[in-house]
Amino acid sequence: MSTNRVHFVDVFAQGKYTGNQLAVVRDASNLATDEMLAFTRETNFSEATFVESADATVGGYDVRIFDPAEEIPFAGHPTLGTAFVIREYLRDDRPEEVVLDLGVGQIPVWVEDHDGEETYWMRQIQPTFDDEFSPELFADILGLDTADIDDSHPIRLVSTGLPTVVVPLTSLDAVQRAETQPEPYYDRLIDDYGNLNVLVFAPETVEDNDLHVRVFADCSGVPEDPATGSSNGCLAAYLVEHDYLDTDEIAVTVEQGYEMDRPSLLHLRAASSPDGIDVEVGGRVSPVLDGRLE
């Protein structure tokens, strides 16, 4: 009988069975890399994480993250969900902060009260800003008209550990109509830049939030993601870098996953600093299942 405990949690959730699903495997140092990848594919979730031991090393917990295609150095909802599992199930003292050792380095996660509920927050690494893209290219990639793309702000490749192309659209309707087109998506984007996410957003929303977002990651086996902390961290940095909200400090709530019937809420904070742009992303975590690997 395996000793590996497994927890399913919903992250950036408004309640159980909302948000983004995550599987967290404990004491996973006995598992080979190919077993971790196979388990991730078995769950049919966008990611799974593997906590290498029950104890922290050098101030943090060694954690590996996989999507259905490969091991990745960072992802948002896996970071928050894994910190929740460590705090609730590995630690007796339920510390206010948990540090994860990930491929991008150490990521701190802490807990704040938000509207009477515990909200988990992470500080992402400093963002980098790379290429800009034409509206014509992304109209083709997303199956939209160029008029659907907000040309007052650039389409930009941003990374806080996992690269994302941030695409501003003009309306909620345009966001809802967006759909990646395989030929231009692979031939004119992924072949040149490798695996990355595409985030589309607009200031028009379904509910009383600030922005409506969708994220596509077909190249990683995730045609659409219901809640994407890494890409929304890139969005937070983008909003500050390009003065989208006419301020160098933002605190917004993003809705995602509505088109998938997995409504999710992500809280974004970002501000200019001497080091660049400081990015924090927060959300609630809901436990769903506790079991063991056979």
DSSP strand count? 18
Write out the CATH superfamily name of the largest domain. Answer: Diaminopimelate Epimerase, Chain A, domain 1
Distance between the termini: 6 Å
- Count of separate structural domains: 2
Overall pLDDT score: 96
How does the major sheet shape up? Answer: 18 strands, mixed
CATH architecture of the largest domain: Roll
Low-pLDDT segments = none
> Which value, in Å, is the CA radius of gyration?
18 Å
Note down, in words, how this protein is organized.
The chain has two domains: 130 residues, Diaminopimelate Epimerase, Chain A, domain 1, CATH 3.10.310; 145 residues, Roll (Diaminopimelate Epimerase, Chain A, domain 1). 22% of the residues lie in helices and 40% in strands. The protein contains six helices and 18 strands. It has an 18-stranded mixed sheet that branches. A hairpin with a 2-residue loop joins strand 6 and strand 7. Helix 3 packs across helix 5. The model has no long low-confidence stretch (mean pLDDT 96).
